[in-house]
Write a structure and sequence with these properties.
This protein has two domains: 177 residues, P-loop containing nucleotide triphosphate hydrolases (Rossmann fold, 3-Layer(aba) Sandwich); 70 residues, no CATH class. A six-stranded mixed β-sheet has the order 6-7-8-3-9-10, with helices on both faces. Strands 2-1-4-5 form a four-stranded antiparallel β-sheet, with helices on one face. A hairpin with a 2-residue loop joins strand 1 and strand 2. It is an alpha/beta fold and 257 residues long. Helices cover 37% and strands 24% of the residues.
């Protein structure tokens, strides 16, 4: 399918999802443009992870539609859905590395599972390029247990990049990291965008991450996208539901407009 470069690569419209009596998403609308980083901010339990699972077809919405790279996700048969997922990279919060495999093997695994016909030299080059991109070429033969939390995050991102996805979904990329390492991960997210021209959704409650990486920010509160815009536009309000994020992050809100 040939995509119109002016059209969003992700289009979410009227998305609702409930678990029993608990409504998590209540008519979510969001577009992501080509090569754009969109940050989704929300409290724990606000539905951020549910939104990501719906995007990649792990959950079905009760209502609404999700169009990813021109495909209506929830109308796809299994083979077509799997093909779409290979075009969407997912960076897990806990990196999701295989503890029994070294770094090289962790990066080779998705290539061997999802790409047919690659020669050994091509696999080696793809692994090397991915590790170079995250600054960890020296860690090729190390085990996950030998890596710091920040290094595991980087390897997890490298494993996501190795399939050269058109869209990258980041789940709490700076969670549990110290400020210096968090800043390095934020810079890496921006480098990925600039080098690969990929679009991204970044799920986080870290305002420094949101300010640093987001071309736009979407505030998910009470099941809806309460505010969408630049970082300063989103927080230029006296709405206590939004201002509360500043108190949590020990930041002063911008001047109200």
């Amino acid at each position: 399918m040939t995509l119109d470069p002016t059209e969003p690569v992700i289009r979410i419209h009227g998305l609702t999802k409930a678990f029993g009596e608990r409504e998590v998403l209540r008519g979510v609308d969001l577009d992501v443009r080509p090569a754009e980083n969109v940050v989704v901010l929300g409290r724990s339990g606000s539905g951020k992870s549910v939104l990501i699972k719906i995007l990649i077809g792990l959950l079905k919405p009760d209502q609404g539609e999700t169009i990813v790279l021109g495909h209506n996700v929830h109308r796809l048969r299994t083979r077509a859905l799997n093909a779409l997922r290979r075009r969407v990279g997912f960076s897990f919060q806990n990196s999701a590395l295989y503890d029994s495999m070294n770094v090289k093997q962790n990066l080779e695994f998705p290539l061997l599972m999802n790409t047919k016909g690659l020669q050994a030299g091509e696999v080696r080059d793809r692994v090397h390029d991915a590790l170079e991109q995250v600054g960890l070429a020296h860690a090729l033969l190390q085990m996950p247990s030998e890596l710091s939390g920040g290094q595991r995050k980087r390897i997890g991102i490298a494993r996501t990049l190795i399939l050269r996805p058109e869209i990258v979904l980041y789940d709490e990329p700076t969670a549990g990291l110290d400020p210096v390492t968090s800043a390095e991960i934020n810079e890496l997210i921006n480098q990925v965008q600039h080098k690969y021209h990929s679009a991204s959704i970044i799920i986080t409650h870290d305002l420094t991450c949101a300010r640093t990486t987001g071309d736009r920010v979407a505030m998910l509160i009470d099941g809806t996208m309460l505010r969408i815009g630049s970082f300063d536009e989103v927080f230029a309000t006296d709405d206590p539901r939004v201002a509360g994020f500043y108190k949590y992050n020990f930041m002063q809100p911008p001047e109200q407009q």
